Amino acid sequence: MTLPMILDIGEVSRQSGLAVSTLRFYEEKGLIQSCGRRGMRRLFEASVLLRLALISLGKNAGFSLDEMDEIFTFQDGVQIDRDRLMNKADELDLKIRQLTAVREGLRHAADCSAPSHLECPTFQRLLDGALKKNKVKRKTKGV
Amino acid sequence: MTLPMILDIGEVSRQSGLAVSTLRFYEEKGLIQSCGRRGMRRLFEASVLLRLALISLGKNAGFSLDEMDEIFTFQDGVQIDRDRLMNKADELDLKIRQLTAVREGLRHAADCSAPSHLECPTFQRLLDGALKKNKVKRKTKGV
DNA sequence: CTACAAGCTCAAGCTAACTTGAGGTCAAGA
DNA sequence: TCTTGACCTCAAGTTAGCTTGAGCTTGTAG
């Protein structure tokens, strides 16, 4: 009753929406694994699709591939640093608040007809809200 | 008794936390503007700090510099496309939901001692939740 | 007045995350 | 048998977003 558990790279590409070259690239980086070869061709377990979905989410969340390699590798026996995860979760918290502020800012800007939004009090309030939380983030280096 | 309204690039760098080279780069891209020069040196109005804060938020939200150049330029007279803003806000909505799922996933993973989180039902539920929303690609108008 | 820190320009370099290209393998259908 | 088409490798190219380096200019403190 198990549906095709083994997929070739083209099938994974079709189902994940990622380019074949991207899949090979991810495998080389260690983000995903093929479960063997048939001749020269890579074979993948269907579970790789779940993992790729997780990677997409992570990318969207702003994680780098390297970070995800560390964070999302919940392999058997490999204990992933609990603090590290919590820390990442906290970073996401901040980010979510900021995104929410930006979203509200955009929605407001679409409706508000002030000449310059940078001077609109509502807009500034939203901005300030987001920045206040940001204060904790003193770092010399940008992304 | 207005405090120094005019800042030189070093001061902007100090107050914004961005490298001087980054500020010059942003100016070249048109993301910020200097209000003139003293000799060869750029001068900035204090308001550039607010704009830079907005840019930082936007970057965090995953906007590219080019996008922000279009979206965050609420200049006098320049009418920014209302649909475009709303569309961006909707994109952020989706992103916020995904980030929330990832955050919960991380928090769960930190506590759950299942051997493989990809197989943990709670984790999968969170993942599915995020992915389901992803399917809903509404909105007729693209960029 | 002269040293020098802080500016400046322009070109080149760097990292992440992929993509593209050249050239080769292999199973299957006409 | 011959031809496709999907796969392979490895190297080089691409884009975004900056940073670095070389070489030149200035305002100001000693």
TrEMBL record, chains A, B:
Keyword DNA-binding among UniProt keywords: yes
Keywords linked to the UniProt accession: DNA-binding
InterPro entries: DNA-bd_dom_put_sf, MerR-type_HTH_dom, MerR_fam
Entries under Pfam families matching the protein: MerR_1 (PF13411)
Residue ranges of domain HTH merR-type in the record: 9-74
Entry's Gene Ontology molecular function annotations: DNA binding; DNA-binding transcription factor activity
Protein name as annotated: MerR family transcriptional regulator
Taxonomic source organism: Terasakiella brassicae
Taxonomic lineage: Bacteria, Pseudomonadati, Pseudomonadota, Alphaproteobacteria, Rhodospirillales
